[in-house]
Amino acid sequence: MSATPLITIPARKGKAAFVAEGQHVKVVNTHGQQVVDTWAFRRDDMTEFMSMEHSRTAIGRTMPSLGQSMVTNHRRPILTLVEDTSGGIHDTLLAACDRYRYELLGCTEYHDNCTDNLAAALAELGLMPPETPSPWNLFMNIPVGPDRSLSFEPPVSGPGDYVFLRAEMDCVVAFSACPQDIVPINGVDCVPTEAHFQVV
User: Fold this and answer.
1) Are 175 and 27 in contact (CB under 8 A)?
2) Number of other CB atoms surrounding residue 2 within 10 Å
C-alpha cells in the first residue's frame, strides 16, 4: 500500500486515523522534545483497546523492545514496535493528563489536555471512545528511581526521531501532542510543539 502524506498532530491537540492490519504507522517527534500520547482501538469494537497494564504483563517490561507487541485488554497484539530511532524511552505508567491534573497543578481556567484531545480526535472520525485508556506515552521520559520514586524529565529524543509501528489488527489510532507546559516532560522550556505521523 502507498504511504499517506505526513499528518500533523497540532501542538496541544489530537489527531486520529484508521489503520489496516499489516499497515505501519510512523510517529515523528518533529522538533525532538514532544511527548505524543498514543492510543489504539480495535476498528470494529472499540471496547477492545491497547492496554498498558496488559502490555506490561505481555512484554515483561515497562517499555517494549524492538519486535515486541503492545496488547489489548483482551491480551491480543495490536501494535508492534518495528523501528525506533529515538532512544527507546516511552512511558507506559502514567495516565493521560486531564482537567483534574491541571487543577491539581494550580490551573484555575481550562487547560488543553490529552483526555479531551482523544475525544476530539475520534469525533473527527465520527467515533467516541468507550473510556480513556491509559496511553502509550511515546517519547515520554519518566525514570523510576532507586527509591521507587518517579521523576518527570525531558525526552531523550532529538528532532526528526521516530518510531515505526505495525498494526496487528484493523484499528483506529489516536495521538495527542501533549499540552503539558508546567512540568518539563516536553523539554526544559515547557513549550509543547507539533508532531507528525504517517500511515504506510
Assistant:
1) yes
2) 5
Q: Which residues of 79-89 are buried (b: 16+ CB within 10 A; e: fewer)?
A: bbbeebebeeb
Domain boundaries, the chain: 7-199
Task: List pLDDT tens digits, range 18-71.
Answer: 999 999 999 999 999 999 999 999 999 999 999 999 999 999 999 999 999 999
Supply 1's cell numbers: 500500500
Residue whose entry in the numeric block shows the C-alpha cell 524529565? 153
Which residue's C-alpha cell is 529515538?
86
Given this model, what pLDDT does residue 27 score? 98
Contacts of 135 (CB under 8 A, 6+ apart): 37, 38, 39, 52, 95, 96, 114, 118, 176
pTM above threshold 0.70: yes
SS3 120: helix
| Burial of 106 (C-beta count, 10 Å sphere; 0-12/13-18/19+) | exposed
Helix spans in the chain (H) = 52-59, 99-104, 114-123
CB 50 within 8 A of CB 72: yes
